[in-house]
Amino acid sequence: MLGFVARRLLYLVPVLIAVSLLTFLIASLLPGDLAYTILGDQATPEKVAALRQEMGLDQPIWVRYFGWLGNILQGDLGRSFRTGQTVLQAVTERLPISLELMVLAQVIALAIGVPLAIICAARSGGPFDRFMTGTAFGMLSVPTFLSAILLIYLFAVELRWLPATGYVPFGEDPAKNLRFMVLPALTLALAEWPGIMRVLRSDMIATLQEDYIALAKAKGLKASRILFVHALKPSSLTLVTITGINIGRLIGGAVIVETVFALPGIGRLLVGAITTRDLIILQGVVLLVGAGFVLINFIVDMLYAMLDPRIRHGHA
Amino acid sequence: MTAAVRSSALARLFLVAGFAVSLCAVPANAQKKGGSITMGLELDIAGFDPLKVGVYDTAALTAAAAIFDTLTYLDDKGVVQPKLALSWSSSEDFKTWTFKLRPGVKFHDGTPFNAKAFKENFDRQKDPANKCRCAFYISFVNSVEATDELTLVYNLKDPSVNLPSLVSFASGNNSVHSPTAWKAKGDDYNRNPVGTGPFILKSWTAGDRLVLEKNPDYWDKDRVYLDRIVLKPLPDAQSRFASLQSGEADVIWDDEADADNIQKAQKDPKLTVHTYAGSGAAVAAFNTKVAPFDDVRVRQALVMALDRKKMSQALTNGLARPATNPYGDGSWVKCKDDGALPEDAEKAKALIKEYGKPVEFKMLVTATPRGRATGQVLQQFWKRVGANMEIEQVDQATIPPRAFMRQFQVTPWRIVDLADPDVQMYANFRTGSPVALANYSNPELDQLLDRARVTADQAKRAEDYCAISRLINKEAIWYWTFQNTYYAMSSAKVKGLPKMYSGIVDVSRVWLE
Questions:
Q1: Would you state the pLDDT for residue A244?
Q2: Rg (CA), chain B
Q3: Contact between A38 and B187 using a beta-carbon 8 Å cutoff
Q4: CA–CA gap between residue B207 and residue A269 (Å, rounded)
Q5: In this structure, are strands B96-101 and B85-90 parallel, antiparallel, or unpaired?
Q6: Which residues lie closer than 8 Å to B494 by C-beta, 6 or more apart?
Q7: Which of the residues A105, A122, B171, B373 could staple to A188 if both were Cys, CB 3.0 to 4.6 A apart?
Q8: 3-state secondary structure of B403
Q9: If residue B498 lies in a helix (H) or strand (E), which one and from where to where?
Q10: Strands B251-254, B478-491: pairing kind
Q11: Element (H or E) spanning B142, and its range?
Q12: CA end-to-end span of chain A
């Protein structure tokens, strides 16, 4: 197992370098020079040239890339020219909010998707299964920004059960925090549960046709025990993969959801950095998010290996 | 130098304002004290240190209006009134202004406010070593001197007839910061601002909320009613409006792009829509040095081809107010005849035909939904009269440098709401100015601009500015689309919101009914 982990960790190095290179290239290729942005309405050619030289923007792109990479390896991701905050400060301030949002969304999505998948698989082809498959397909097609506004309209403006926007830190008031988080998390979950349900459902249907399930039935085990104990674990491999990939989708979704619900998370930080052309924050955050995504998928790989011993022994 | 200024040319023509007029127009006990409000802003505030942020955006201005004081303020009639300054006077050539300051005022950290503190603020912005973007806006001031504890003298490079009005809003330049605080906090001062204003910054969570609490020692505390103001960035227009409807926000910032919600709120008795028809306008400049705009007929044709009403309908449900001059209804410059060209597509077609060559050009537009939509509408208008415009989408930050280098054929620009037209008119149209974007030079225009800025009589100045408008309109070097209108919406129980000069929603003196 240790050898397997070490090998996988080694693979991470080139992936992370690729992530950093892409991030840097994208940020550098964005229209609008950083010097122009900082100088704003005083961007006379002389001032721009002077500032570019001062910031090293006049150097070739690979020199700047290695300079940036070198600083990162020393733990310095840079500092916003607007707020004076370092990238690390800004991210650590906002990360807990986005993490909470993602975990809650994932929990809600699983809580909706998994039971529905099991019920549908148990009665596959029945009217409920067909109805849910259709509903899931419909839900997959609803964009997040639309469901967010609809949920706000229903629960905040009409019914007044939940707040439309805002945030309270969990440490300050857990109950209030959850009230603020319900709608954003639900919005994200609404886009996620259909995928979970469809994948688990088809895996379960396949598992339920295995011989050992037939044996369990023949032994007279209760249907619920067969479903939850004997069928769920072997069917959940794809689900683990999907959950890992979903994290990436959730980060994307968080950009929209955090903006609509005014949550001070990473997504908002990114949007703000883009609209104000705060390239230092932008490339720092994209790099950290990218690295985080790579790490999560590394963990997913590990989980995979734990769930299915064949994988870690390379026989899969 | 300081003594000379004090004793010399100060003819003290205008001893404006004074102690008596002050803020006492409304009896203080008519308003209910106490309570707290939450306001939804459009943007995350980056900070308050002018050296860091350069210019305050709309969100920072709302906070700055509560945390800081300025020398003066404008009342609801647009007349300048004393705030940190009690009285002021100018030399005959309007190049020296002397302000007498209010005694006994302290910053939130206990530092006394005086002429020296003010001078330190000014010098910090002006110092070339600090490279402050904000220095650009005080380039017309040579120096500020503290001649005694409470006397401040502005020495101007260019004359300014209305300097006291121009320093009336809480911009990055005009807000007065505590020198002790910025020296002690260094880099962190940006997010820990200290002023003399009616509210003190209590806490600030980035991206979430900025909490302001009433300043118990404020020099004018009887006219500050709220105990607390919470400012929250709510970037999405739809959910910002939903927050107002559901009661999480009591006041929200808004603009014409959100016309649907503004019109919905106008019909809702529980909500109040606050509007301020400011001066200035959304404008655009033709580069008269490059074809086809080196021919006045082409420029005139394109201006005549505009149908501003239809444009307003298409872009803002008809909310945007058409502009035919650079001053607008909010300005004290009122023209019987501003020389606006008629909106006449037929005449425009004829002019293009007369020009004889194909009219093809590029226009810069900002790569935003609003910029694109505006470009597309203009494209259609001009196509109708036989001119082909190609939209060139660029980043917002790219427009100023392109404009400075005159690398454009048509570029959008804005004339913002300021208490006096001189600053922007002189910059935009005087020969040799870096932002005289049209590359157009006309001795008559220069003469009018030079005269208007040193004339004391407002009626005479207005006449000059109308003549300037007629000249610009006739030559069609710039055109104006919509006047500046500023919006805020609130629950109907929020009272006393002042006029939104320069687009600032100042909630520091509102009360709850």
A1: 80
A2: 24
A3: no
A4: 8
A5: antiparallel
A6: B37, B250, B251, B272, B510, B511, B512, B513
A7: A105
A8: helix
A9: none
A10: antiparallel
A11: strand B141-148
A12: 15
Q: Which residues contact B497 (CB under 8 A, 6 or more apart)?
A: B251, B274, B488, B490, B505, B506, B507, B510
**Pairwise CA distance, residues B430 & A59, whole Å:** 38
The answer to whether the beta carbons of residues B146 and B118 sit under 8 Å apart is: yes
Q: Find the CB nearest B52 among A82, A167, A262.
A: A82
Spatial separation of the C-alpha atoms in residues B435 and B440, rounded to whole Å: 11
**C-alpha radius of gyration, chain A, whole number:** 24
* Residue A136 to residue A153: CA distance in whole angstroms: 22
Given an 8 Å threshold on Cβ–Cβ distance, is B205 in contact with A44?
A: no
Contact present, B64 and B152 (Cβ < 8 Å):
no
Residue A32 pLDDT? 64
CA distance B363 to B286: 9
User: Are the beta carbons of A174 and A91 closer than 8 angstroms?
Assistant: no
* Closest alpha carbon to B485 in B323, B288, B290, B244: B323
| Interchain proximity A262–B400, CB inside 8 Å | no
Is-contact B400 A40, C-beta < 8 A?
yes
CA–CA distances in Å: residue B127 to residues B64, B132, B140, B142, B186: 22, 8, 14, 11, 17
Interchain pair B52, A165: CB under 8 A:
no
Q: Is residue B2 exposed (0-12), middle (13-18) or buried (19+ Cβ within 10 Å)? A: middle
pTM of the model: 0.86
Asked if A83 lies within 8 A of B205 by C-beta distance, the reply is no
Question: Alpha-carbon distance B366 to B399, whole Å?
Answer: 8
Q: Are strands B151-156 and B359-366 parallel, antiparallel or unpaired?
A: unpaired
CB B54 within 8 A of CB B134: yes
Cβ neighbours of B267 (radius 10 Å):
8
At B29 the pLDDT is: 53
Interface residue B427 vs chain A (CB under 8 A): no
Mutate to test the interface with A, among B209, B246, B368 (most CBs of A within 10 A): B246
Helices B458-475 and B443-452 meet at what angle, rounded to 10? 160
Type of residue at B350? A
Task: Name the CA dihedral angle for A93, B46, A84, B189, rounded to a multiple of 10 degrees.
Answer: -100
pLDDT tens, position by position, B116-148: 999 999 999 999 888 888 888 898 999 999 999
Assign B230 to helix, strand or coil. strand
H helix or E strand, kind and range, residue A229: none
Return per-residue pLDDT of chain A as tens, 316 residues: 678 788 888 888 899 999 999 989 888 887 667 777 777 767 777 888 888 888 888 888 888 899 889 988 888 888 887 788 889 989 998 999 999 999 999 999 999 999 999 999 988 889 999 999 999 999 888 988 899 999 999 999 999 999 999 898 888 899 999 999 999 999 999 999 999 999 999 998 988 888 888 888 888 888 888 888 788 888 888 888 888 888 878 888 888 999 999 999 999 999 888 888 888 899 999 999 888 888 888 888 888 777 777 776 665 4
Please identify every stretch of chain B with a pLDDT value under 70, giving residue numbers as ranges.
Answer: 1-29
Structure tokens at B126: 């002006």
B239 interface with A at CB cutoff 8 Å: yes
From the number of C-beta atoms within 10 Å of its C-beta (0-12, 13-18, 19+), residue B348 rates as buried
Q: How far apart are CA A257 and CA A155, in angstroms?
A: 16
- If one counts every other C-beta atom within 10 angstroms of the C-beta of residue B454, the result is 16
Angstrom distance (rounded) from CA B49 to CA A80: 14
Reported as a single tens digit per residue, the pLDDT across B396-436 is 778 888 888 899 999 999 999 999 999 999 999 999 888 89
Q: Are B404 and B434 in contact (CB under 8 A)?
A: yes
Residue where the block lists tokens 């809480």: B170
Chain B partners within 8 Å of A33 (Cβ): 397
